[in-house]
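Example record

Each entry pairs one chain with its bound ligand, cobalamin.
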Amino acid sequence: MRQSQLLPLGGLLLFSLIPSQLGTICEVSQENYSCLTLLPLLNTMINSKYSREIQAANVLLSLRLVGIQDQSLERHLVQEVKKNEEKKALNLTSGQLALVTLALGACQNSDETITHLHLVSKLEKKFQEEIENMVIHDGNPLTNYYQLSLDVLALCLFNGNYSVTEVNEYFIPENKNFYFGGHFSVDTGAMAVLALTCVKRRIINGQIKASEMDLKHITNYTESLVKKILSEKKENGLIGNIFSTGEAMQALFVSSNYYNQTEWNCQETLHTVLREISQGSFRMPTAAAQVLPALFGKTYLDAYNSSSCGSGSFNISIQEPLPIEPNSSSSWISVNYTVKINETYFTNVTVENGSFFLDVMKRAQEINETVFRFTYVESSWGPYITSVQGLEANNNERTYWELLSDGKPLSQGVGSYVVQNGENLEVRWSKY
Ligand code: B12
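Structure tokens for the complex follow.
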């Protein structure tokens, strides 16, 4: 354990956990938190230097916002992001390109890199393609509204072109794209609040033109989205679930005019998030990257220049991941696995204790290729199931493969959900 190298950062964390610019909304007392609380989170992100591009963009954006610098990590991430952008810019979805733009442009005094790579003008086109797809396909974007919000946010922060009237037309809070299976998506709503807040600030500062009516709509939509976010607040302070809470906090930080202080106890939320961190809930780099800015009182809106980001006057040491000890005394568990389309296909499989959902699917596929064959793509959250029995998920039709355990939807993917003995796992053909 090389903790001595990490102690200076601990000091930094104690200091930074007081989000000064948030006034009375979210004051954190120093005594409540150990200086080592955030180290697992940072280690996850910093050790993600070998990870995929969109993960890299998420991590780079987050570290830059809070002002944590590690030169070699930063170089690696910038290279990764650029390599991806140069090689297959056309393959990036709009939101991926927006994240790349945000990450490379974040906290820099000049936006040289993003200008050089023409990222903003490419993003303008991608955003238009999303709108065109909605016109043709019954209001369904190529991707989703989380990504459209990322698009508007990046275009707004880095002076791209977009139509305020178009934003108003599509970001009505009742739009179906804010809901999955009829349930409001906190992550999506939070990202939209950040985007709309950016646009509103630009209008008020006279940086873009808009009618009185447009401004009024933006204000009303933001207010309504904030209400919906707050209505997803749980008893323990989480908003939505543990993975949406960081971005929901960002949205609430920038929209404090729209609710009164009794409606949200920020300290309670923060306390629960910090407890979850110590319990290892944020082992995925993307999860860690999405929650970190809020813990430092930062939001994606701070990315527009260096003065609004963390100070950046400190360095951190990378703690290499500990080698995983081979499990010599492995035991076996038995789980039930079902694929449900119209019919139900069932099998029982035996896997090693500590296996992931993905291991169960692979084992079932070995048992019966015809019934249990499946495909997946790697994403920033790990493997995403795209087809089972050759039946492909389709955004134009809002279809996907839903993961469930004992009939309840899981809040993790097949690559990170650890299965238990006797569990009833299901992959269900669903509409969102
Ligand atoms: C949109 C969305 C969906 C859409 C994706 C299709 C579409 N139209 O785009 C739908 C509704 C189908 C969906 C499904 C699921 N989702 Co989802 N989704 C999101 C959301 C809101 C935005 C993703 C995005 O576009 N990111 C931005 C782009 C730039 O990044 P990207 O990596 O290129 O995005 C792709 C992947 O994120 C992928 N994806 C979406 N969800 C998930 C979930 C997992 C586990 C994986 C591996 C990939 C993945 O789809 C994106 C578009 O291609 C995020 C919220 C968030 N905070 O990130 C949740 C989120 C990623 N989803 C989540 C979950 C749990 C799921 C499901 C496992 C739910 C379930 N019980 O079935 C399934 C995935 C099952 C599978 N087939 O493998 C969690 C993941 C948490 C975790 N620790 O793993 C998140 C963080 C929401 C939350 N707060 O709980 N999702």
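The chain has 16 helices and ten strands.
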